[in-house]
Amino acid sequence: MVDVNRSKEIQRxxxxxxxxxxxxxxxxxxxGLLTGSLAMISDxxxxxLDSTSNVIGLIGNxxxxxxxxREHPYGHRRFETLASMxxxxxxxxxxxxxxxxxxxxxxxxxDTPDRSHELHLDDxxxxxxxxxxxx
Length: 135
Ligand SMILES: [Zn+2]
Fold this sequence. Notes:
By secondary structure, the chain is an all-alpha fold. The chain is built from 4 helices and no strands. The protein binds zinc ion.
């Protein structure tokens, strides 16, 4: 027993969401590249990653809507659960990235410490300076 309408509706929502994610990603990447803002570029990359979960959802949904066959006599609904689990893992990874970058902004960003005594700026410092300009 397969609810074709339900699967079609899920597919429609996933495609619209994916299109929105890709538009946001493109906009952020273009602005980031034009302004040289690393924060904006990494934001755009995150939005692009968001569309990955839409693709996983679409594949899971397509498989789940297949009718039962010899190997799967009870149908393929479990593939939807599997896809949901993969999307959850991606969400947890994204959340972890946000927490990590927030912590590094708190510890490295904010008030600029006096580095005038330093003779050399390594790549890490140059990078964080870029991020500050970007914000
Ligand atoms: Zn099967």
